[in-house]
Amino acid sequence: xxxxxxxxxxxxxxxxxxxxxxxxxxxxxxxxxxxxxxxxxxxxxxxxxxxxxxxxxxxxxxxxxxxxxxx
Length: 71
Ligand SMILES: [Zn+2]
Ligand SMILES: [Zn+2]
Prior knowledge:
By secondary structure, the protein is mainly β. It has one domain. Helices cover about 5% and strands about 40% of the residues. The protein is globular. The mean pLDDT is about 90. One zinc ion binds near residues 20, 22 and 38.
């Protein structure tokens, strides 16, 4: 039984499931920590583009944090 994981308002993402049923297409993504980055529907920015809320099921980083260079 997979453990549930919360991303944004969605509380039913599945930890460690590469075919998480709650994630949109192209997610989850592999995080550099070895976990999976899930995505939930987020807000619409002023340009009208949807900005997904992302979070790793292991380290908790967002997609932006996970792929930006270590500072
Ligand atoms: Zn997910
Ligand atoms: Zn991670």
